[in-house]
Amino acid sequence: MALSWSGRRQLLYYAVGAAILLVVGIGIWQVFFAKPAICFDGTQNGDERGIDCGGSCALICSIDAKAPVVLWTRAFQVAPGIYTAAAYVENRNVGAGAHKVKYSFQLRDEQNLLVKEYVGVTALPPVATIPIIVPSITVGNRTVVKADFNFSSEEIQWVENTRELPALRATQQNLSQDGSRLSTTIVNDSVEDVRGLVVTAVLFDGAGVARAASTSAIPRLARRSSQDVVFTWGDGVPNIVRAEITLLPAF
Fold it and tell me: Which of 8, 125, 141, 197 has the fewest CB atoms within 10 Å, i.e. is most exposed?
């Protein structure tokens, strides 16, 4: 039997009311009962591979993170009783970096006895090779012949870099013949200012052995601009054939 016009209208009202109640019910369930997958709730949910890590989370799970590799460590005497410690670290986590990483240099004498330990904190930006350089370490009247570098036993928290790294380059590199002065121009080709940029320089001899190192900070490099940076090493460093400049942007 066909419904009357009033019956059809009443049925339509019922359908609309039921749809409204359904939408409201879903909203209430999502607000009070459904827990969205977020990357800082202390629970493994969504597409996370671990608790608040992996998947769409920036934090890399410890099972996926690769430990940094120390390629070499050296100590360079810059004046009587004063040394610069340097280490080259390889970051094997492509596109990821770490903040507030604790490390230490141990400077030792010819008998392998500890002369001085320096403990510091650094960031490991999302670049392949990261020089860590500490200048002006005083050791008194002791002589340093060896340096060791270690990260602390705390687990390094690697985080995927979600922003594009700034377009930076070092140009017009000029090394004096006696190895006492290295100048370069740092160019920011980005459309944004770069802040907290660290520039490192390492000098190598013909055998590829690091013979000197230094670091400089540029607090702010305006977009589409450049800045000259000069490194000096007292009376010079003999037999230098190559200088390597590394740009370490904040992230």
Answer: 141
